[in-house]
Design goal:
FAD/NAD(P)-binding domain; elongated; five-stranded parallel sheet; seven-stranded mixed sheet; alpha/beta; 2 domains
Length: 300
């Protein structure tokens, strides 16, 4: 019988684990892949206080080491179902084992959104990627495209400019949404070209990506772009954890206030899975701390 089961080992989950252990709670972290979440796939984190320029992987490693150093148990499994039985929750893992807990912190994060165009699924892993830091090295001195206009898309374009022969940033609007500091850095990249007001209609090729079918949304002009790879950075979709009665907003994010309490007593949402204005590492860490504090107030 645990006090807390923390679902997810990203920054929200690791912060929750640290605060839970410091509060002497019997807590466990359940993670289906690896620690760090999206943070671990970020080439450079330049806005986490005190650690400017650290790689996402290194920051994830430090958070994990901190949590494990305090005695945090991490179980690498997926959760098949969650049921509320009286005043406790029963969680069933994919491997079949069950655990009981007083409270749950859902810190399962979010995953990369898809374009939903022809060829995207076919060429995933064969020229289509959602992680520039993971796959950028495969495109050394080749032509690549990045789709999107936010922070991640700009960061990907800057990162790839150091590796690829040339980079084309494709954005459906006439201006970027990313941070001004990132846009300034992007302008310094001589091998990056931006296609404004443009959308991807399809991703084409034989065994791997060869061309993109594009359309200018202002004049409806159709044209082709020859590339060896395309990196898609058009947003994120929350990774849902199914609990009967848990309220989510229209985007699928869990509804919870700044104290991270959901509509179900004993269930808390932290990090990118929570409906909120700003999704950053620093806000995810804050959520993890708040969620544990709310639990201790509710059950002690």
């Amino acid at each position: 019988m645990y006090d807390l089961v923390i679902i997810g080992a990203g920054p929200a989950g690791m912060a929750a684990a640290i605060y839970a252990k410091r509060a002497r709670l019997n807590a466990v972290v359940v993670e289906r892949e690896g620690c760090g979440g999206q943070m671990a796939q970020t080439y450079e984190v330049d806005n986490y206080p005190g650690l400017p320029g650290i790689s996402g992987f290194d920051l994830a490693t430090k958070m994990k080491e901190h949590a494990v150093g305090l005695g945090t148990e991490i179980i690498y499994d997926d959760i098949k179902s969650i049921k509320k039985v009286d005043e406790k929750f029963v969680l069933t893992y994919e491997t079949g084992s069950e655990v009981e807990t007083k409270g749950i912190i859902i810190a399962s994060g979010a995953t990369h959104s898809k374009l939903g165009v022809h060829g995207e699924e076919k060429f995933t892993g064969a020229g289509v990627s959602y992680c520039a830091t993971c796959d950028g090295a495969f495109f050394s001195q080749k032509s690549v495209a990045v789709v999107g206009g936010g922070d991640v898309a700009i960061e990907d374009a800057i990162f790839l400019s150091r590796i690829a022969k040339d980079v084309t940033l494709i954005h459906r609007r006439g201006e970027l949404r990313g941070a001004a500091s990132l846009q300034e850095s992007l302008k310094k990249c001589e091998n990056v070209n931006i296609l404004w007001d443009t959308v991807v209609e399809s991703i084409n090729g034989d065994k791997k990506v060869e061309t993109l079918s594009l359309k200018n949304v202002k004049d409806n002009e159709d044209f082709q772009l020859f590339v060896n790879g395309v990196f898609i950075a058009v947003g994120i979709t929350p990774v849902k954890t199914q609990i009967d009665g848990l309220l989510c907003n229209a985007g699928g994010y869990i509804i919870a206030d700044e104290d991270c309490r959901t509509n179900i007593k004993g269930v808390y949402a932290a990090g990118d899975v929570r409906g909120k204005r700003l999704r950053q590492i620093v806000t995810a860490v804050a959520d993890g701390a708040n969620a544990v504090t709310s639990f201790t107030e509710d059950f002690r």
